[in-house]
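Just scan this pair:

***
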Amino acid sequence: MDNNNNRTSLGVDTIIKLIAFVAILLVGGLVLSTLTPVIFPPQASAEAQNVDSLFTLLLFLGGIVFFLIQGLLVVSIIAFRARSGDNTDGPSNHGNMTLEIVWTIIPSLVVVFLAIISFSIWNENTAPKENENMVNGEPLIYNVTGARYAWTHTYETSVLDDEGEPLVINSGDILHVYAGQNVYLTMQTQDVIHSYWVPAMRVKQDLLPGNPDEGGRPTHLRFTPILLENETYPAEYPIVCAELCGDGHGRMRGTVVVYENEQQFLEMFYDPAIDALLNPPADPVLRGEVTIQEYACMGCHVLDSLGWSGITGPSLNGIADRSGERVSGQTAEEYLVTSIWNPGAYLVPGYGPVMPVHGPDQPGSNQMDAEQLYSIVAYLCTQGENSDCDNENNTIAIPAAINSVFNVEVDISFGQGDSADVSAESTQEPDMAMPEATDEPAAEATDEPAAEATDEASSGD
């Protein structure tokens, strides 16, 4: 029997029930949509407001579908339950063209609507904005470098040094911005794919390997921080890597510091950073303490004096006490400079060759000149109770080590005086071959595989 021919018109009671059911669906959707501010971090950017408005809409529509399905299940269980004493088969119903058209067209229209709204919001969030990266009336270039397992942020300024080159501020794993600033980040990776994610800003962008110039294919990210009620400024928001990149992935974190306004940004970050670049400390140890934090070392190494807690690279605690005994025939200073500029020359037992090579010819944030190397080694030579380094004569011993291993002279005055004339007067042959000491008996430290060397002294890997 064709049951489709026995359809009856809807009664008033049925219509009222349908209206009540639809009302319940709408209320359920509205209730679920109110969860957006509860389950999300603070809306710390204009983009966050756009994303959350879309998510609220998705929760509203999802709530309607959820309560519709659950409601139909409950109605079906009650209306079509087996009655007591009724052992007959239920009626056979097959095919309902109207219902099939409805449940095809309505979801299709909803999906198209959501696609249009999503694309509109994505386009608005990624579109170029006016006056991007403006600081003190001048546009800066904000660069982000990802490397296993740390972020590095640099700012190419319009302030020139003594040689007429723009000063570049390096803030390590901290990004400094201010509320209302249209931020535009240019990002590259030094190794594998990373994903730069700031949950409070609702922005995320992959960093992709490949040229140009071995620094990775540039990708970009835009957002505009906003002020929040009941927030204390400067405010801090976490940066995390959202792409699995290795065993240190979970520790690849950073921080976005948002200042209340540009004036606070200038006073607390920008002006002191420029002053530090124009007037750095003359003491190489103090200079090295600052310089080493400009690289990604903290992502892999432990160093209590700087609060580092990396686990994928050798610890640098007490490195000065071990460096003179690592490689036979090398002084402590020679071992340290080699481990930074050519980390593959010697590997601490238990650790692989994952640290990037540093040096003046390296791209991006890996680039380290001889003066930076000199100051970093001077600082590392103080990390120990019984240092193997000649710390009383570090202005001679360290430049001599750099010259003997790499045939590069060092300006120990950092361009501030004529004392550079005595910078790299080495008593050793300047063209001595770079040591390959992995098979030297003195290089074996298998009794303490986690007692570090600096095969990653200035990198997070």
Remarks:
- The longest helix spans residues 46-79.
- The first strand starts at residue 134 and ends at 135.
